[in-house]
Structures are given as C-alpha cells and as structure tokens.
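This part of the workshop introduces the protein records we will be handling. An example says more than a description, so a record of this kind follows:
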Amino acid sequence: MTCHEQYEPGPAAGAQVRKEGEKWTLILVRELRHPPERVWQALTDPAQLREWAPFDAEGSLDTAGATVKLTWVGTAQVTETRVTRADAPELLEYGDMRWELEPLSSGTRLTLWHKIDRRFISMGAAGWHIGFDVMDRFLAGQPIGRMVAGDALKFGGWQRLNAEYAQQFGVKVPNWPPNAAHKS
C-alpha cells in the first residue's frame, strides 16, 4: 500500500469565503506542528514547494520585489508573479495569494487568502486542504508525496472534500473532472 493509499484527509474545516463578484477569496486556516521559520521555508523555497504545492517555482519567493515564474502542475500554465510582501516568517504575498503565519506554542497557525473564480472555490479549498496535510507531513519528516492536479482529482478524499466544501460555501459541486474515479 502506498502513502497516498494510506492517507485519508480529515473533514472539510477551517475555511470560509469572502464573496466579491466572480472572484471570491478563499480563506483557509490550519494549525501546523512546526515553527513559523520552517513553514516559511516550505512556502518560499522552490525545492520544498515541489514536495507539496500545486505549482513549481523557478526561484525563491522569500524576497519582496522578486519576479518568479510559477508553473501549475499538470498544465502548461506559467504565471510570472511578483512577490509584493515578504516579511519572514510572518507574511508572504504574491499574485492572488496571501499567507499569514502566526506563532503558537504548538507550532504555527497558517492562514491562506486565495482569490479564486467562484465556480472553482470548493475545488481550491479541497486542493489546499490536502496540500496543507502533505506539507505538514513533509515538514515532520514523514513525506507522503505531492497530490495535486490530475492525481488529486482521482483521489476519493479530494472528491469528498470538494463536495463538503461546496456544501459549506453554498455552491454547486463543480462537474470536474467529469469522469473522476470515486475511490478512497
């Protein structure tokens, strides 16, 4: 049995949306058991991003003013983004994303603010939910491997989360991908 087969995400939780026309802002909060400095590295270092994030970065995201190319996994979509804020290890902003890191006695409260087309808000929440789980395990030295793009869509846990988040947000479950496997 692979690590992916053994992994089962918890219920949809810690998310809300701010509705502004067609672009909604997903706000996802997760408490991680790692100090902010380690979480910051996972958010900014290209090698660490490749372990969990839905995109590859062609440079570090840790410097305000830097322009970095992001390639979304499973697509040919390359986005050039500018890091607008990089206040290590507390606040990171680039493109449509804002990351806030708050130190806790047990680790870090990580808050992601991500502007997403409203039609895909539940998909984004499900994907980031799994990504945060994968990052948490990677930082703990127990990597389970990145689950993004087509791999995530085939994963039964992603399908369940997508439906749960859609219900929480009061949106219709996107029919994407149309023929996704519903296995756990």
Notes: Residues 179-184 have pLDDT under 50 and may be disordered. The longest strand covers residues 107-117. The longest helix spans residues 121-139. Strands lie at 15-20, 23-32, 55-57, 67-72, 78-87, 91-94, 97-104, 107-117.
